[in-house]
Amino acid sequence: MQEVMEQIGKVAATDANVLLLGENGTGKYVLAGYVHELSERKGQPFVHIDLGSLSENLFESELFGYRKGAFTGADRDYAGKIENAQNGTVFLDEMGNLPLHLQTKLLSLIQNRKLSRIGESKERLLDVRFIFATNEDLRKAVAENRFRKDLYYRINTVELQIPGLRERQEDISSLADYFLEKYRQKYHKPGLVLNEILISELKNYSWPGNIRELDHCIERSVILSSEKQLKLLMPQDEEPEKTVVNLNLEEMEEFLIKKALKKHRGNISLAAADLGLSRAALYRRMEKFEL
To answer: In terms of DSSP H, where are the helices of 39-77?
Structure first.
């Protein structure tokens, strides 16, 4: 994370497009806001647009706006979300969910920095900075023709990979303390504390939901604890761990590889280290078992 923050410090002062990559809950929204606050556009609008929550029917009207009378129900002129970010920053989240035909419209907007409201012929000049985010593997999506190659190269002038919480265990304690203080105040329970045993318990969990899951865990624990003693209510695994009774070596090997990958939520480096293998050796075995 220190490396990520150093890179953010360098790119924030520019108007370069930034692509934030990472799993859900890793803090991409917070980091996008941090880029904005460090930039010369601080004090201007920061507009977050969740592309995953927009239906195709609403995409153009919500992003580009419309002229009164442009369609049934358009009873007034409406400036879209992007136009409302003029002189500020637009954060386009969940880029991987955008259908191909809408990717074309977005590419034109990013390239030309111009937009036309629905029902208008005149173009409006935009002065905005774009930040993008996704939890999708966009390179794979490009290879599978699900994402435009030209759009991918346009949005990732600077690409930042945000590590999952399981890869930054040293942050768990400080994050937990931050959330505890937040919810102690909110729920009026100032006597609750996190001791070393509870911190150890937090660090022994893999946090598939990342920082957001930790946040919810601490809030839930504060709500359901007494005013004097924090009872940590940890998340439960999605399914019980399976056991192996067959001692066939190949089946055992496949089982252990699957278990390591599940434990480390697909992180190849951590899974390989846990298994005592190199990354290349683990990749060969994954290919062998078609994992």
So the answer is: 56-64
